[in-house]
Amino acid sequence: MKECDRIVDGIRHPWATKDEILEAMKTFEVREDDVWLITYRKSGTTWTAQIITILSCGCDVRKIDEIDPKDRVSFLDVLKQGMTEFAHVTTAKKPSPRIIMGTHFQSRHMPRELTTKKPKIFYVARNPKDVAVSFYYFHKSNKLLKTFESWDEYFQAFYDGDLVGGSWFDMNLYWWNRRNEDNVLFLKYEDMKEDLGSAIVKMSEFLGWPIPEGKLEEVVKHCSFGNMKKNPKFNYREMIDISVSPFMRKGMVGDWKNYFTVSQNEAFDKLYEEKMQGSGLTFRFEL
Ligand code: PPS
Could you give the CA distance from residue 48 to residue 202 in angstroms, rounded to a whole number? Predict the structure, then answer.
């Protein structure tokens, strides 16, 4: 059954982001030795989470295969099906150092202490046109999100920033403006796609978790789209109807060209220019 989403403080939230969660974020305790992964949805969360987890296991890829993504990725934002306790309650009880993955809150709803404490924060950004397409399929296949009648209807909602999680522009510009803080690493999906090895090295240096000699190639292979797609753990069957669209869909840069009409593309480019003007934040829309 598809449940309804709703607007709270001007931002659309999925049904699974309960009021209790939004309230708890105001006082959620952040620890200086936490590692956080923050993204706008469909920007490479699962991919980056996998890399961080491998780095946390000393790059032993056999160890990671024993870990279920559900057990390591603490999505604070939602009460998932089958969960008996809110993720923020479980996470508060975890010993340090905690790895807190997959938080999609806009700044006004994220834990307030993320502005006063200095945990390591990864922010991953992806060009908005590919995010839009990926998110479209996520709406179609996700058992709990609204299905749009058509791509055109969906495109308008994305353009208006009226999807769950709010505006792509607001979230990405907020974190871009914090990119120079020494505890923030701003990554781009397209850079990871172009040269995953360099991105992994950067991440390892940021964390201070070294890659054992000779292991980098193995980690790169393990985190390739083809390899992750083969792994049934990433189908998230309890949430996704994979007969509609798999979670690991295409994993590419430029798929938007198959969906944006010429007029949608022109309208979006105009909006993009207006919103991004003067920010210095740029994206590649093809590789
Ligand atoms: S979510 O639901 O917000 O957590 O989704 P998220 O994980 O952020 O994004 C899903 C998209 O990332 C792609 N993906 C990858 N691309 C390249 N390489 C690897 N290893 C990889 N892993 C996941 C995934 O396929 C989704 O993008 P699309 O364009 O839909 O394929």
Answer: 12
Domains of the chain: 6-276 (3.40.50.300)
Over the stretch 211-269, which tens digit does the pLDDT of each residue have?
999 999 999 999 999 999 999 888 777 788 999 999 999 999 999 999 999 999 999 99
CB of 250 sitting under 6 A from ligand 1: yes
Q: Which position has the token pair 């991105």? A: 199
Q: Using a 6 Å cutoff on CB, does residue 248 contact ligand 1?
A: yes
Place of tokens 């700044």: 107
pTM over 0.85: yes
Give DSSP secondary structure letters for 230-283. Answer: H-GGGG-TTTB-TTT--SS----S-GGGGT--HHHHHHHHHHHHHHHTTT----
